[in-house]
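Open question from group meeting: does this chain pack into something compact, or does most of it stay loose? Before anyone orders reagents, we agreed to write out a predicted structure and look at it together. Recording both the input and the output here so the notebook holds the full record.
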Amino acid sequence: MHQDSVWGSLAYLAGRFGHDYLTSYGVTLRIGVISFLGGLLLAIVLTMARISPIPPLRTAVSGYVEIFRNIPVLCLLLFIVYGLPEVGFTLDYEPSVIATLILVSSAFGCDNLRSGINAIDPGQIEAARSLGMSFGGITRSIVLPQALSTVVQPMVTLFISVIISSSTGALVPIAHDELTGLVSRINTKEALGIPTFLVAALFYVATGLVIGAIGRIIEKRAVIWR
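Structure tokens returned:
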């Protein structure tokens, strides 16, 4: 019988499963960081296409954003894990989680970047055009740098959301448990619901606080760069 107090249960969990918590937290961070960076890169590509002078391309990207911004992460994950094999395309479980988060985060990231672009003074773009700069040159040199510096906080919020959404990995049998998957397994085995989930919640909250603090530092520097 475990100690009845919450502190006693937490001490028991730390002693018996402390290493497992840290390992699973590492898996959570790996999934979250890879997914966010992949989503950010894809969002940049999508944004360039969305503001391109090619109407069909703009329409296609707008459709992409609307679809993946509004589809639940769980539904998309289940489709990738169980639906794609029906048409002959199979991913391992962890890459399926990462692919799901990349698709969703890229849609939100693209929307964030569009908001940042709308905040840019149109006169800068007109001046660049008058100097003979190409669309690609204007986008790389003027539009994207300023848009990225403008949307630091929305991107930080998106990063935190991706870290939290990595918990959907608990719904598929990935090779190594992420944090929520570990919590579910421990709770099934030990029947320590509240303390078990409390430890995981502290990991998620601490991660969000650290990311938020780093984001504020980046935002302050971005203001200087602008």
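Observations to bring back to the group:
The first helix runs from residue 6 to 50.
The mean pLDDT is 86.
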